[in-house]
Design a protein that fits this description.
heterodimer, A: mainly alpha, B: alpha+beta, eight-stranded mixed β-sheet, four-stranded mixed β-sheet, 16 helices, 22 strands
């Protein structure tokens, strides 16, 4: 009973947040210097400029444009991209699966590496292997994505011809799993690296502090075996903050990773978002904002629903 | 474990890189709009040159040669052009190409509300009429010597039947997926954000394409383009001078350069009193060490300037005039003659004691331009100018400063059709004359040049204009860049032109 009211209240709050985010984006977009790339051609004559502004509705007062955007949104019309001349909604939607594939794999890889290694390191602080992991994660965190990506491309594609330099698939080739997988290796690696390092450090410190908690010492004193202590008393408690960190990284799943997608010519949302922002493609920027904000709100809602499963105390 | 090893073997086993034989792979930085009338950006323009031939195209000396038009006549008053079209040409969907299509294309171009991005190129046209199915007549408001060049530039012809009387902007299926042209290659598939695949058109009216397939890959990042070239995933890319070390001497790659119709300049706003006197602008012109910019910033891939007509337009370029010298002594004299003398602290001041102060604007993100602006700034500061540099986004530079005329100085460039007509740039009160240059003799020369269809007399006009520019420079021309192309050494048949014009000859490209 209380549970469904809680969900409903959070959904309504979500809608309010969505409205605030899109309104703020709308205002910032129009306040920023410059304007749509299509109008930035220095050769345009006044006649052409007026025709374009009129066609795009940019000659109307800002409040009118703002209201029109909402009216169209309610009708399911997100407008037409200035850069691509395609419906903004469809343009963004086309990119979502590409981005989910890339970021989803990267996050999975991060979890697969960071959870076991991090919790091992947390239970064995100060050991040489722990020190090594710390050094490795520091290095990984300080590698600039841009530089690291290009270095990998030069090594694996340009010098050794082992993997493709970019793209999602070989154009014109019958789509095959192997071909898709080969295109995924480098971008997933580059994208997963900093996230893995961050998560690993988090898991390690969370497990380390849980290991020295009084109730753990008490459990050991009661003679409970080390595996059970680990599983029931350390990991369970250490997991809670980790879920929060994963939740914080999750919006990246949707918004994509602009730099990685650009270097690897990956047709994802991150690249689309950067291109749209630079070209002041208002309809696309607004659509992406809407989609990403909605996804973040939903993910947070889901996390709120997951917490009680991880920690019974929250159920109260 | 064995399964894992197998997986790794599959992953790395198949050889990466190179596409099927006879496939040319080119790079684009953004998703193109496949309609030459609507194309707003360089990526779209490049692709459309391949899909949509025009009535004429530039030959290797940038002179118009027949393309969809077989021949043409010009009326003695220079106001009527009659084109005889090639017979038997088919659209990519098999429909016959007719004079009506040419008329339709220009109706769209001349209607600013159609979404046309070519309106100002052709504003001299009064109307275009299909006299019969293979004859089309252009009637002009004023005589134009540049019409032919412009017809071979961006004005690809689109098929009337593909739009069914509806606005061309609304035909997303055509503009973004399955365009219909008459070119040597036709679009097979378009994957948004990824690639565009074209195959040879067996019905092409010109010499049969040597390539089987052309793939445009979307590679937005310049370094990734160079890496793609080295990986064999791209066969030809244009590069920035800064990328030269990455390709020079690389196995299987050759680097070429081509002069292109561009001039880079610093524009001083002549709405402001201190930039109005010709002596001041001449002084500024002589204060710049251009050689240092060309060698240091552009790694030698640019030519030193004479005036606003670049060396790429060999027929019109004043090669008899010396390049603009670097002469600080004469510059100082000229400043003094205009009332600007060096006072305390070495700053230039006028009789009222005001310093020679200005802010130079440049767009951010392009290292060559930013460094060139910095070099200009230092040279002018050394002369005693109180100058500062401000970088800002290109769209802001254009929209908030250049076009409203609210700037003191800015570094920008013009990319022009391969024609010397600079009427709209440097004639008093014209739309692209953002620096507000005004010289009555320049006005009359530029007006004469655009209407003069006799090429010898036209050349004399532009030689006179270039000589005049030395006495009263409209802008401070910095250099004419050369376009750098890095390509597979196996690639042959690429004309010695900039990429834009070279792609008009894609049927002659092939592999050794």
């Amino acid at each position: 009973m209380g549970y469904s009211r809680f969900v409903l209240r959070r959904l309504l709050q979500g809608l309010a947040v969505l409205w605030i985010v899109t309104t703020a984006t709308f205002i910032l977009l129009h306040l920023a210097p410059g304007g749509p790339a299509i109008l930035a051609d220095p050769k345009l004559s006044p006649v052409e400029r007026q025709a374009i502004e009129h066609r795009l509705g940019l000659d109307r007062p800002l409040p009118v444009q703002y209201l029109a955007w909402h009216r169209n949104l309610l009708r399911g019309d997100l407008g037409k991209s200035y850069l691509y001349q395609t419906p903004a909604g469809r343009t963004v939607l086309e990119r979502v699966p590409n981005t989910l594939l890339l970021t989803g794999l990267a996050l999975t890889l991060s979890l697969l590496i960071a959870l076991p290694l991090g919790s091992w390191a947390g239970r064995h602080p100060g050991k040489p292997a722990d020190r090594l992991l710390e050094l490795a994660s520091f290095t990984a965190l300080s590698l600039p994505t841009f530089w690291f990506g290009i270095v990998l491309i030069i090594l694996f594609a340009a010098l050794w011809h082992l993997l493709p330099a970019g793209g999602m698939a070989t154009p014109g080739l019958e789509s095959s799993l192997a071909d898709r997988a080969r295109h995924l290796v480098l971008p997933v690696l580059v994208l997963a690296l900093p996230g893995t390092a961050e998560l690993l450090r988090y898991v390690r410190s969370s497990v380390a502090s849980a290991s020295t908690a009084p109730h753990v010492t008490a459990a050991r004193a009661r003679g409970i075996g080390e595996p059970a202590v680990s599983r029931r008393h350390i990991l369970r408690n250490a997991l809670l903050p980790v879920v929060t960190v994963i939740g914080l990284q999750a919006p990246l799943l949707v918004s994509g990773a602009a730099i990685t997608e650009t270097i690897f010519s990956w047709p994802g949302m991150g690249r689309l978002g950067v291109e749209a922002a630079l070209g002041r493609d208002y309809p696309v920027v607004m659509t992406i904002t809407l989609a990403v904000a909605a996804a973040v709100i939903l993910i947070n809602l889901l996390l709120d629903l997951v917490y009680p499963l991880v920690d019974p105390r929250i159920r109260a | 474990m064995r399964r894992l090893a197998l997986g790794v073997a599959i992953l790395f086993g198949c050889k990466s890189g190179g596409a099927a034989p006879g496939t040319l792979q080119l790079a684009l930085i953004n998703d193109p709009i496949l309609n030459p009338v609507l194309a707003p950006d360089i990526g779209s323009i490049l692709v459309n040159k391949v899909i949509f031939p025009g009535l004429v195209r530039p030959d290797e000396h940038l002179r118009p040669e027949p393309d969809l038009a077989e021949s043409w006549t010009i009326s003695p008053d220079g106001r009527t052009y009659t084109f005889k079209l090639r017979a038997g040409v088919k659209w990519h969907d098999g429909q016959p190409f007719r004079a009506r299509d040419v008329q339709f294309t220009f109706e769209q171009i001349l209607d600013a509300n159609s979404g046309s991005m070519l309106w100002s190129d052709f504003s001299m046209i009064d109307r275009v009429e299909a006299a019969d199915s293979l004859t089309v007549t252009f009637r002009l408001k004023t005589p134009s010597a540049s019409l032919l060049t412009l017809l071979g530039y961006n004005a690809g012809i689109i098929p009337e039947h593909a739009f069914g009387g509806k606005p061309i902007l609304d035909n997303t299926a055509f503009n973004r997926g399955k365009p219909i042209g008459t070119g040597p290659f036709r679009v097979v598939s378009a994957t948004p954000g990824s690639s565009l695949i074209l195959e040879a058109n067996p019905d092409y009216f010109g010499s049969p394409p040597r390539l089987r397939q052309v793939v445009f890959r979307l590679v937005p990042d310049g370094s990734a383009q160079v890496a793609g070239l080295r990986a064999g995933e791209l066969d030809l890319v244009t590069i920035e001078p800064a990328s030269l070390p990455g390709v020079r001497g690389a196995p299987g790659i050759v680097v070429r350069d081509a002069t292109v119709p561009q001039h880079y300049f610093v524009g001083f706003n002549q709405r402001l009193a201190r930039f109005k006197p010709a002596a001041v602008r001449r002084a500024l012109d002589l204060s710049i060490n251009r050689r240092a910019i060309v060698d240091g910033v552009l790694k030698g891939s640019a030519d030193l300037p004479v005036g606003t007509i670049p060396v790429a337009l060999a027929q019109w370029f004043a090669d008899s005039l010396p390049r603009i010298p670097y002469d600080t002594a004469q510059a100082r004299q000229l400043f003094a003659s205009a009332g600007w003398r060096r006072g305390a602290g070495g700053l230039l001041r006028n009789a009222a004691g005001e310093p020679f102060r200005f802010t130079l604007l440049v767009d951010k993100g392009n290292p060559s331009r930013e460094q060139a602006a910095l070099a200009v700034l230092q040279d002018l500061k050394a002369m005693g100018a109180d100058a500062t540099l401000q970088t800002l986004e290109f769209s802001s530079l254009v929209r908030d400063y250049l076009q409203p005329g609210r700037f003191e100085a800015l570094l920008i460039w013009w990319t022009t059709p391969p024609d010397p007509d600079q009427f709209s740039y440097y004639t008093t009160g014209q739309i692209n004359n953002n620096v507000a240059y005004s010289n009555r003799r320049a006005d009359s020369l530029l007006l004469a040049g655009r209407g003069e269809t006799d090429s010898l007399r036209r050349r004399a006009v532009y030689l006179a204009f270039q000589a005049l520019e030395r006495e009263d420079p409209p802008v401070l021309v910095l250099f004419y860049p050369r376009e750098l192309m890095a390509m597979s050494a196996r690639l042959t048949g690429v004309p010695r032109l900039g990429i834009r014009d070279a792609l008009r000859h894609l049927e002659s490209f092939g592999f050794r």
